[in-house]
Amino acid sequence: MHEFGAKPDGLTYNVMIKLCARASRKHLLVFVLERILEMGITLCMTTFQSLVAAYVGFGDLEIAESIVQAMREGRRDLCKIIRELDLEDYSSENEGDDDDDEVFEKLLPNSINPSSEPPLLPKTFAPNSRIYTTLMKGYMNEGRVSDTVRMLGAMRRQEDDASHPDHVTYTTVVSALVKAGSMDRARQVLAEMTRIGVPANRITYNILLKGYCQQLQIDKAKELLREMADDAKIEPDVVSYNILIDGFILIDDSAGALTFFNEMRARGIAPTKISYTTLMKAFALSSQPKLANKVFDEMLRDPRVKVDIVAWNMLVEGYCRMGLVEEAKRIIERMKENGFYPNVATYGSLANGISLARKPGEALLLWKEIKERCEVKKEGVNADSDLPPPLKPDEELLDALADICVRAAFFRKALEIVACMEEHGIPPNKTKYKKIYVEMHSRMFTSKHASQARQDRRRERKRAAEAFKFWLGLPNSYYGSEWRLDPMDGDEYITATLKERFYTVLTIQ
DNA sequence: ATAGGGTTAG
Question: Which InterPro entries would you find in this protein's record (predicted)?
């Protein structure tokens, strides 16, 4: 920056706070503040605002609260306060990506050798309603409704006008109440807003609409939609309608969803990609993939919106819900041709479709594709940009695949998948797999009349089955008959990582 | 794409 003769200002560092937040560098936040002070840059309220928002984003309400409290008390040793709290729960484990270390060291050289005495604020800053509201959001995020409401009361009692609750503060309270399912109390807050002359806006109403939909009170939502237009003179927008359309899905009414989609367009409100995708969801979830496809085609034709991965996935989901694997695979080919790589949601839908269609062979193909994308290819990073981006599988996807493989007696693959689950910190549902195994395969390989040739062919599968039983903690050829069939034993006995374990087992014989 | 409190799809 200096090379270009440009000097960083307060805004620069507000961006940097956001950068630290996005890169999961909580412990660096305090050094942004210190850097601003060391460079003699004029501090402004937005910096404190950004800081509190960042800590709230990290879910660290202790530091967020302490900043607000220190500001209230007019303390100038804020950096020291934050540093000490930061130290208490410091762990480098979840502090971002090592590769970014150098960048941050350059941006915040003071973070490497922190000054022994953190700098003082040049003057004091009193919190304003924005900062209070940000802290309030922290309470809301943690479901602390009574703290949210108590905060509102405290703000009302403040002497300075800058700290009084405004429409955003009230909307945050409404949101907290709605999240807790307290629609009546939320309506009381809305009434209070009108009464005291802090009028609700479209966002407030949209939050309430969402609340009624979540409570499956679609009639109340429709009523409120009318009320906001007729009484409050706030025209519903595309978000309001998207919420209602989704509300119809929640009560299994795809026809109602379509009606509202059409009503929205009749009112001259342009659908967004979310509107289209939500309507597709209505048809996908009601086993009408062809209708979902029609919506998708209309979305393709609408120049105002761009089809994205979510829309493609919804299309795939529609076919997979019906177990139409071939159609789903064709869609996935098309999405690839259009430059979209399938993601966990795509593969998750497909895995469920394969399970429904009872085509375990498809699961093997899918697992092969997923496995290739799970492996982090260090060498390929700089070269071929054509490589699909690495995939982070989730529990739903891997569990669906493992389930299929266990049912189909693909034990080697099942072990690969559970190993992958452990690598990604997902606890495999051993109890479920054990149940499937016992119910479906416990009599496997027990036929005494099999020919020698057939027994030879089965050897490899049998070894895999034994390894799988070992992992499940079921009696197996390695531990013989002394093994008790106790659901807890397997978990307690086995301590090595799964990968080490089953590879060792497979090479014993 | 790039600070600044509250809402919508997978």
Answer: PPR_rpt, TPR-like_helical_dom_sf
